[in-house]
Amino acid sequence: MTRPDAPPRVVVRRDSGLWAYERALARAGFAPVAGIDEAGRGACAGPLVVAAVVLPDGRRGQVPGLADSKLLTTAAREAVYAEVHERALAWSVVVVDADELDRIGLHVANIEGMRRALARLDVEPAYVLTDGFPVRGLGVPGLAVWKGDRVAACVAAASVLAKVTRDRIMVDLHEQFPEYEFATHKGYVTPLHRQRLAAHGPCAEHRRCFVTVRRAEGHDAGVLDVRAPRVEELAAGEGA
Question: Per the domain annotation, does 31 fall within a domain?
Fold first, then answer.
């Protein structure tokens, strides 16, 4: 039985285009809509970056070249990044460093980053779309959308802001720690990164909650801090 105060049901076909969610929610009285996404969840080094974006309706919100950040080339992401900055009604970016990720855990940090990003928006959204999993305590109605960065424009825009911001941070970290080649693999677990970890051990930017990092540090991978639960590594690009 539907509660009398529940928001109206909104049905969107997944083949309806990148802006279908925002249009459907606007017709149901939920506008503007914020999208939230992150970059770096699967990396074993560097920060987690979370972005929130509210796009305007109409032609101004039709960002040229907008798509899931993982499907775009580096040059295309940079171009879309600039367009989102120029066109968005509001946007925010939150950076969660490796130390905090280890201290409170990856999933908790991810959720907290999403809450912070939403709170920092200059425009209060009427609805929130998140990529992959629901986030409680946002203060507004929301929906978790499977592969949201591929089917919802505001989530795709957030994915681009998060990815470009994080990639730039990893390039800067490469200057500080050139021996790890962060500019190449962006902190993900690749053969090159494993090789550099084996040769040099982890640095301050590595996440001790990852098995690969713990092993490189000389610790038993089965003995982990309860605040930093074991994380199985993802290949470069997965969950970025």
Answer: yes
Is the pLDDT at 209 greater than 80? The verdict is yes
Write phi, then psi, for 41 (nearest 5 degrees).
Answer: -60, -40
> Closest Cα to residue 214, out of 46, 102, 47?
102
Amino acid, single-letter form, for residue 80: V
225 lies in some domain: no
Q: Is residue 70 part of a domain?
A: yes
Query: Domain count of the chain?
Result: 1
Residue-wise pLDDT for 128-171, tens only, equals: 999 888 888 888 999 999 888 899 999 999 999 999 999 999 99
Query: Two tokens at 208?
Result: 């001790």
Q: What is the amino acid identity at position 12? A: V
Phi and psi torsions of 92, nearest 5°: -150, 155
What gap in Å lies between CA 64 and CA 57, rounded to an integer?
A: 14
CATH number for the domain that contains residue 109: 3.30.420.10
| 128, amino acid identity | V
Torsion of CA 62, 63, 67, 73, to 10 degrees: 160
Q: Is 174 exposed, middle or buried (0-12, 13-18, 19+ CB in 10 A)?
A: middle
Instruction: Give the whole-angstrom CA distance, residue 84 versus residue 60.
Output: 10
Which residues constitute the domain of residue 27?
20-166
Q: The tokens of 186 are what?
A: 């962006």
